[in-house]
Amino acid sequence: xxxxxxxxxxxxxxxxxxxxxxxxxxxxxxxxxxxxxxxxxxxxxxxxxxxxxxxxxxxxxxxxxxxxxxxxxxxxxxxxxxxxxxxxxxxxxxxxxxxxxxxxxxxxxxxxxxxxxxxxxxxxxxxxxxxxxxxxxxxxxxxxxxx
Amino acid sequence: xxxxxxxxxxxxxxxxxxxxxxxxxxxxxxxxxxxxxxxxxxxxxxxxxxxxxxxxxxxxxxxxxxxxxxxxxxxxxxxxxxxxxxxxxxxxxxxxxxxxxxxxxxxxxxxxxxxxxxxxxxxxxxxxxxxxxxxxxxxxxxxxxxx
Amino acid sequence: xxxxxxxxxxxxxxxxxxxxxxxxxxxxxxxxxxxxxxxxxxxxxxxxxxxxxxxxxxxxxxxxxxxxxxxxxxxxxxxxxxxxxxxxxxxxxxxxxxxxxxxxxxxxxxxxxxxxxxxxxxxxxxxxxxxxxxxxxxxxxxxxxxx
Amino acid sequence: xxxxxxxxxxxxxxxxxxxxxxxxxxxxxxxxxxxxxxxxxxxxxxxxxxxxxxxxxxxxxxxxxxxxxxxxxxxxxxxxxxxxxxxxxxxxxxxxxxxxxxxxxxxxxxxxxxxxxxxxxxxxxxxxxxxxxxxxxxxxxxxxxxx
Lengths: 147, 147, 147, 147
What we know:
4 copies of one chain form a homotetramer. Chain A is an alpha+beta fold and about 150 residues long. Chain A has one domain (about 5-10, about 20-145): Roll (Thiol Ester Dehydrase, Chain A), CATH 3.10.129.10. Helix content of chain A is about 30%, strand content about 35%. Chain A has helices at about 25-40, 45-55, 130-145; strands at about 5-10, 55, 60-65, 75-85, 90-100, 105-115, 115, 120-125. In chain A, strands 1-4-5-6-3 form a 5-stranded antiparallel β-sheet. In chain A, strands 2-7-8 form a 3-stranded antiparallel β-sheet. Chain A is globular. The mean pLDDT of chain A is about 95. The interface of C and D includes residues 64, 65, 66, 110 and 121 of C.
């Protein structure tokens, strides 16, 4: 388990708008890419397989981004994904998006999802194997910070 | 000036993902459509003309959505746009997204933008004609609520 | 059945890219909106219900656009949808995108979909009630042109 | 100059729609990513810098995709970009999208852009240094095929 998890994402032409910076809404597409990768690599959880085979999912109940500095296609983002809180069904993540060059803070994101039965969209407890991986990632991350 | 401003938006096939509900990131595209319409119709401000002719813009410094209930292509959204706060340069909006049928609350969004010189991305005071329209809309909205 | 079917679509800020015109890929989102509306209003066919309830769909086998003139957020598109060809399983559409002001031709699109069983993605014959509506629309359109 | 140029692209959750396959319009976003990378790595041409500094661009005059087999988030695409034709101002590319596993053909794309002055959107001749790189890539590609 590599800690911290960093998702590397070059900014592309298609991310921009007529102000020649990344369009507000596209930050959320980029964050969802980072979170999908975090789920896959750290929690070993494939959203698509989970949805199609087990009819369970992790619909988001909250998503927010604070934008610190604008981004253009010359930039590459390094997005660090941290766990803010693990509830019974819910998982809250913090995303730190930094420009690769000089490490300038570009944005901070906060996203909360809720493990759910997709048939009735009722929340379910986080499965125990996923919970263990979340806890493990939290412990390794806290060592990094305190160490 | 029609108060409150409501942006009507049918949910479309292209808004969905494999969980058969609207994809998290697409809510922000939808909210930006609603805000663009609010700026155009209520504040009489055209983002594109403003960007190209005056090199001023309203980049967003914060965007968030709380998701209350999932949406599918059978739904039509009515999105009410309210002003939460008017600062020197910044404008904070609240968006209430309700399903047209039965008026079920679908999401609440909070978006803050900052009037800016796009050449150096420094904030500028909200132009006085825009400020007047914002104040007028706030006053009419408060009458609606108190009345 | 209103003939010809016209989908009206204002160009928005979020459609643009850093060249300050509509981004190439976004034309296809716009065309898919127009086609979804055509299916719904003319063929009385709801992609979402069809997918979820009958597990049948109309995946596209071909999509193309010729771009005649660039578009910006000041423009409103009127997109006419015509039927080019009806096969056993396949349906080919032509889309004529014109600027509302002065009617300047903005793009021509050609899209072919294939009615399919989504369980095995094998093509199925176009259902007879849909076929009748397609034929009816073709007949009314040809009268318009010849008349 | 690595020949052929291959753009590797994992399919993501956000690419899908309610039919649980990649949404038609999203193929064009994916193709534009591949073409942007081809321009950057092979033609040494940065769309964003070109647009902002020289006010020249390569707006697309044609874009099409033939879809051979559906894609899901389990798939990784390898997209090969070949030059179909080099005109005075125009450049036509063919994109072969294959699934990484077993190399199954997923789609074929054909895209034509026109080097243009963005101030008046009139076409300009392909700059000579770019033309040389295009010709070089064509020659190396043809050796690959004939060899």
